[in-house]
Design a protein that fits this description.
The chain is built from no helices and seven strands. By secondary structure, it is mainly β. The strands form two sheets. A five-stranded antiparallel β-sheet has the order 6-5-4-1-7, with no helix packed on it. A two-stranded antiparallel sheet has the order 2-3. Strand 2 and strand 3 (19-20) form a beta hairpin. The protein starts with 5 loop residues before the first strand and ends in an 8-residue tail after the last strand. The mean pLDDT is 89.
Length: 67
């Protein structure tokens, strides 16, 4: 995941049962480091830090299409 990538993510409703919300969409706004395993996503004007296991790339950013 790189800055500018559109992603979809889910929030955890209940950590004990791993109940998740429906998919939400946002944009990666800070460089993602694999050792952190946390993505910073802009969603509805709010910066959210989300565990990488709940984030999937939906569409590559324009500058990232060369991969």
């Amino acid at each position: 995941m790189r800055v500018g990538d559109m992603v979809r993510f889910r929030d955890v409703i209940n950590h004990r049962t791993q109940e998740l919300t429906d998919w939400k969409y946002g944009v990666i706004v800070k460089e993602y480091h694999t050792w952190e395993k946390v993505a910073t996503v802009l969603h509805e004007g709010e910066l959210r830090r989300i565990r990488a296991e709940y984030v999937q790339i939906h569409q590559r950013g324009h500058s990232n299409n060369d991969r």
